[in-house]
Design a protein that fits this description.
Helix content is 29%, strand content 34%. It is of the alpha+beta class. The protein folds into two domains: 112 residues, Probable inorganic polyphosphate/atp-NAD kinase, domain 1 (Rossmann fold); 156 residues, Sandwich (Tumour Suppressor Smad4), CATH 2.60.200.40. The strands form two sheets. Strands 5, 6, 7, 8, 9, 10, 11, 12, 13, 14 and 15 form an eleven-stranded antiparallel β-sheet that branches. Strand 8 and strand 9 form a beta hairpin. The relative contact order is 0.16.
Length: 297
């Protein structure tokens, strides 16, 4: 690697990203690698940095799921098939954890020195990409409402706590919380009444390591999970099966693998891409096979 571009969110992970980048720069400097260091300050910065052609040999993304999403969008939109390496620093880091990417800087440095790359799938939601998940409905706004200090201290447990609070308030059991959708895909089409939908590219979503246990980033498919209307009696079994990864056969879960699915809805339902709000339904979701080159262990 002669030239490495680093795109980092300096406040990610309670500013651990800044410490990690400093450590990584020291290691790369010993190899006399040219380093292009880009710190994000506002939404869109990471995407813009990734889009710019600097003749770099590698793009390193240092931050949480939102920063990773922007970098992926920048690389995809500019049609720059540059290898990308993820140095995780956020609260949950679902995608990085699903691929067992190192969080330790020295281990990360060893990984990028070997430059073992692989072309993986990403998802396209309307005109925006997602690397890990697209979701909507009940509980999907928890990432925005959970306090930053709680996320920094508790990590993904902070999301579980907020989710439990919402469930105890009983909103999920009320009819006004349900979404009337029409789905169109080769595998399944029709009207459904759901509380939420998840379209996953990797197994790990929202801190649940096996939310989409059959998902693979190289299989050319997106894994779709629709949660139907829930009753109080459904919760213990569903929550238990979620932690065990056995929920796909639950009576309140609709599951399918698809390359292309359209979800229509007359209501104003926000769509979340990798933890960031990105428009509303209706929306079409498609897999982009092998669209991203990523560095793996």
């Amino acid at each position: 690697m002669k030239k490495v571009k680093i795109i980092a969110n300096p406040i990610s992970g309670r500013e651990t990203a800044l410490l990690k980048v400093t450590h990584l720069v020291k290691l790369l400097s010993k190899d006399e690698t040219e380093i292009l260091l880009n710190f994000t300050h506002e939404e869109g910065d990471a995407r813009r940095f990734a889009q710019k052609e600097d003749n770099e040999d590698l793009v390193v993304c240092c931050g949480g799921d939102g920063t990773v999403n922007e970098v992926v969008n920048g690389l995809y939109r500019s049609e720059r098939k540059k290898p990308m390496a993820i140095l995780q620093c956020g609260t949950v880091n679902d995608f990085a954890n699903s691929l067992k990417l190192p969080a330790d800087v020295k281990e990360f440095y060893k990984m990028i020195k070997k430059m073992n790359t692989k072309d993986i799938d990403i998802g396209l939601a309307g005109d925006r990409c997602f690397i890990n998940v697209a979701a909507g409905g009940f509980l999907t706004d928890i990432a925005y409402t959970t306090r930053e200090e709680n996320k920094a201290v508790l990590g993904s447990i902070a999301y579980y706590i907020e989710g439990a609070k919402e469930i105890l308030r009983g909103k999920v059991f009320k009819s006004e919380s349900l979404i009337d959708v029409n789905i169109k895909s080769d595998e399944r089409s029709g009207d459904e009444k759901i509380s939420m939908f998840i379209i996953a590219n990797s197994p790990s979503v929202g801190g649940f390591k096996n939310m989409a246990p059959e998902a693979e980033v190289t299989d050319g498919y997106l894994d779709v999970i629709l949660i139907k209307a829930l009753e109080v009696i459904d919760l213990p079994e569903l929550v238990s099966s979620l932690f065990n990864g056995n929920h796909l056969d639950h009576k309140k879960v609709i599951y399918l693998k698809t390359k292309d699915i359209e979800i229509n809805c007359k209501e104003d339902v926000a769509v979340d891409l990798d933890g960031e709000k990105a428009g509303n339904l209706p929306m079409r979701f498609k897999v982009q096979e092998g669209a991203l080159t990523i560095v793996l262990k």
